[in-house]
């Protein structure tokens, strides 16, 4: 059984036992429930929502919050002596999918 969920403006295909990185969730340690389920697939068929499947949810456990690798951004204007170097680390949450409730 698998499901397609939406969180942080992105869509993820998940199965039970998967560990995925999603946009940072506003919670600390503990359980997380994803209610925006777009599709549920199983051996008996596919259930698609319009836009979400009613009554469906995906339960997960938050493993950790962290930051990704640093991305360096450098801009300059030629012949003006203007240079700017910036860095960015995108925050993320790592979750483990526990169960898919259809």
Verbal overview:
The protein has 102 residues and is mainly beta. It has one domain (2-101). 0% of the residues lie in helices and 67% in strands. It has no helices and ten strands. The chain has strands at residues 2-7, 10-15, 19-23, 30-34, 37-42, 45-48, 57-67, 71-77, 82-88, 91-101. The strands form three sheets. Strands 2-1-5-6 form a four-stranded antiparallel sheet, with no helix packed on it. Strand 1 and strand 2 (10-15) form a beta hairpin. The chain is elongated. The model has no long low-confidence stretch (mean pLDDT 94).
Summary keywords:
102 residues, mainly beta, 4-stranded antiparallel sheet
Give a brief outline of the structure:
The chain is built from no helices and 10 strands. It has 102 residues and is an all-beta fold.
- Helix content percent band: under 10%
Number of strands: 10
Secondary-structure element pattern, one letter each: EEEEEEEEEE
Strand content: over 45%
Low-confidence stretches: none
The number of distinct helices, counting runs of at least 4 residues, comes to: 0
Roughly how many Å is the radius of gyration? 19 Å
Give the N-to-C terminal Cα separation.
10 Å
Q: Which structural class best describes the helix and strand composition?
A: mainly beta
Average residue pLDDT: 94
Main beta-sheet annotation: 4 strands, antiparallel
What's the number of domains?
Answer: 1
Biggest sheet, strands in spatial order? 2-1-5-6
Shape: elongated
Write the layout of secondary structure elements.
Elements: E1 2-7, E2 10-15, E3 19-23, E4 30-34, E5 37-42, E6 45-48, E7 57-67, E8 71-77, E9 82-88, E10 91-101
